[in-house]
Amino acid sequence: FFFKQKTAYEIPKRDWSSDVCSSDLEFHGRKVFVDTRNVEYGYAFLKRTFDAASDRAVWNDLDRDYGFSYAVVWYGPFANGPALPYIVHLEADPKWALVYADDRSAVYLKKTPDNLATIARHQYFLVKPLDLYSSGVLQRTPRAQLAQLEQELIRLAAADANSIQARLLLAQIYIQVYRHDDALTQIRAGMATEPRSYRPHELMAALLVKQEKWADAGRELETAMDLAGGTGGNYGYLADVFEKAGDHAKAAQYRGMR
């Protein structure tokens, strides 16, 4: 977590943080704008704060009134949505810079004189928090910038050993450019960190398909489907993989599940 690292930076002035992060920040002696003590703040204040999650005008009013200089956002529960609360405003405002992200939280600094040195060392230019749960950044990044994207993802992966999404994006890049050993390293690290996650197995299957190891790919897809609760499986694709593996019985089984 950015403010817990040994190289933590003293950032003065005001902080805005989503309430889940606030208790941790307070434990480490950092003032916060709002925390989980709902009764203490009153309905009007909390309504304004919560409305600011999706209403940019309300967010801008809060920022103007309180003069935030950094924002810590716990976005994990909203990662599968079309936009992330609060972050949607920070990403659209050139006065803010992303300096840290993991699978659950993100830290943005406002480009104030006090923050510029930290931003220069830590800003991410290509990756956004929502990218960690999709392949959007791979699709929109020009091939000429893939090396820069790789370095940003390496930094993200190194920043939090308990997060896997940056590693899986790295693996996707390595699969695309036929760096299969590097892809395997990242996928295995993801499996070791989150053994109950379906995503690393899904990506392992993609790597094995690229290598035309059809039977192994089929088994990884079945594992991914089991870990995902048996829902959302692409049975037609799974049938095709087992057909190429020569397992016609399983191919027929999955074709019948469409």
The secondary structure category is alpha+beta
Largest sheet: 4 strands, mixed
What best-fitting shape do the alpha-carbon axes yield? elongated
Proportion of residues in β-strands: 5-15%
CA radius of gyration is: 21 Å
- How is the largest sheet built, in terms of strand order? 1-2-4-3
Number of helices, counting only DSSP H or I runs of 4 residues or more: 14
The stretches of 5 or more residues where confidence is low (pLDDT under 50) are: 1-14
Estimate percent helicity.
40-55%
Distance between the termini: 43 Å
Q: How confident is the prediction overall: mean pLDDT?
A: 88
Helix-strand string: EHHHHEHEEHHHHHHHHH
Number of E-state strands: 4
Overview of the molecule:
This protein is α+β, with helices and mostly antiparallel strands and 258 residues long. Helix 12 runs antiparallel to helix 13. It has helices spanning 19-27, 38-41, 43-51, 56-66, 87-92, 116-122, 136-140, 146-159, 165-176, 180-193, 199-210, 214-227, 235-244, 248-255, and strands at residues 14-17, 68-74, 96-101, 105-110. The chain contains 14 helices and 4 strands.
